[in-house]
Amino acid sequence: MKKHLFFGIIFAAGLAASPVFAQESALSQATEMAQDQEKTKLDPEQLPDPIKATIMNNESLKGLQIKEAWQIVDPSGEAHFKVVFDENGSDLTKKFKADGTEIKE
Predict the structure, then answer these.
(1) Does residue 4 carry a pLDDT above 80?
(2) Do 54 and 83 belong together in one domain?
(3) What's the structural domain count of the chain?
(4) Which strands form 65-73's sheet, in the order they lie side by side?
(5) Residues 27, 33, 36, 38: is their CA dihedral positive or negative?
(6) CA-to-CA distance for 30 and 40, rounded, in angstroms?
(7) Quick one: which of 63, 61, 71 has its CA closest to 97?
(8) Which UniProt keywords apply (predicted)?
(9) pLDDT average, residue stretch 2-6
């Protein structure tokens, strides 16, 4: 009887710990992916003209102030741009390809 109880407790502890190990694995994969990308902070004026045009032609974005702009280059050398807008005190983040196309997530 004690053996069954002991093995039951060990089994339950193993099940309880498995999500912790899974989270650590996912976190390390996300960290590795982030390290493979090169991020460069830009002045909003340095954004490519197609992205500026997309922002100016978008009714919901053209009146917002740009707080931050980043160029992100992945390991293959392809760049996209992350733009953080100030939307009434909260951040609104959009991603764009160099040709001005918005990247929907």
Answers:
(1) no
(2) yes
(3) 2
(4) 38-42, 65-73, 79-87, 90-97, 102-103
(5) negative
(6) 19
(7) 71
(8) Signal
(9) 58
